[in-house]
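Re: the 469-residue chain
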Amino acid sequence: MNMGTGIGKGDSDAFVFFGATGDLAYRKIFPALYAMVHRDGLDIPIIGMARAGWTLDKLKQRARDSIEQSGDFEAECFEKLAAKLRYVGGDYTDPATFTRLKQALGAATRPIHYLAIPPSMFATVVQGLARSGCADQARVIVEKPFGRDLATAQSLDRTLHQVFAEPFVFRIDHYLGKEAVQNILYFRFANTFLEPVWNRNYVRDVQITMAEQFGVQGRGAFYEEVGAIRDVVQNHLLQVIALLAMDPPAGHEPEAMQAEKLRLFRAMRPLDPNEVVRGQFKGYRDEPGVAKDSQIETFAALRLHIDTWRWAEVPFYIRAGKCLPLNATEVTVTLKRPPLAVFDPNDEMPANYFRLRLSPEVVISEGALVKRNGERMRGEPVELVARHRSEIEKSPYERLLGDAIRGDTSLFTQDACVEAAWQVVEPALKIGQPVLEYEPGSWGPAASARIVNGGDAWQNPAPEKSQPC
């Protein structure tokens, strides 16, 4: 097992990615590596592992096609990337493949291995790395999904830990590398005005909506294996809640951040099936690869409870689905009303709130009340809006791969956090009731309204208004 400390403070000195000819490499990894060369001068060997039959020239051409397709291509920069590329082909079950990888690594002593391959191949590859010596002082990156449930997540962790100690395992969830998601953390802990009200004394509820206007886009067979809860709730949206609800970390080290997130995950109560509504958009069963009697949810609405001193009795509402009215991911934190109506008690005004739009644009706003013009003390709601735009923003994969090479675990998920998240959602995976059909373009099945307490309603994201320059 990789228990050494030699790489703890040092950068990886070679980048190896299995599945170099696959879709993930084409869409994400090659553009990220190119951006790292372009922006940061990444200068380590890059070794693509793939099936036999390819050549280095063919791999370079695929990398070039990928980067040109991404819309950002400079020939000089690409040549720098191409000069670092190596290719090792072969069967992952053949020890000779890993012998060739060891030779290709040459003088590198602290490689990082990215397993951009199906999880069913993880055990074969990590054992091949161990037997060949390629795992010595190495790190490993694995891509979600991290299991299908608690049992398979634990099995995956056992497989990885046979060779790599937990500090050397980097579970990559691209959502955590998004600038907008990082903005949550910064907004919370960099502003003094927020902390006094960020608790059960002032917050009435928290809502998170992840709406996608499109359907499964020809990936019906894949979606039949996951569904909305596995696809985005267990990972993306629970991670967002962790950033919203965790206490401040005790220090700057990545371990401090991970400790607070783990504490928060362990405080999440397992979902009550009576507080979960699953839906399926009309027409889903007509998609190629989808069963005619499918009970896979394309929509989920649920109520989550966090049993901490800060958040006791504050409901967290999560809603995610496909074929909804627009593309948007948004957080709304609604505050309690003032204890006494100083002005007209019959003048029912909306409560104060904080709204964080995470996609497609980044918007942070605060809902407040101001006096209307005139002699009477009557109010009207306004929204104070801060917009964030950056033309040089790093892509999530560029950010995360750079952190992994440096050994920074802040934006990666621990084994204990993964398992705690599965414990939260596992009751919702065993619901026996059939999914409820909803019309494409709606906000899901009508029954989802009952998830929200006290007669209140879901806060539906709206298209952002264009602003003058």
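The chain has twelve helices and 15 strands.
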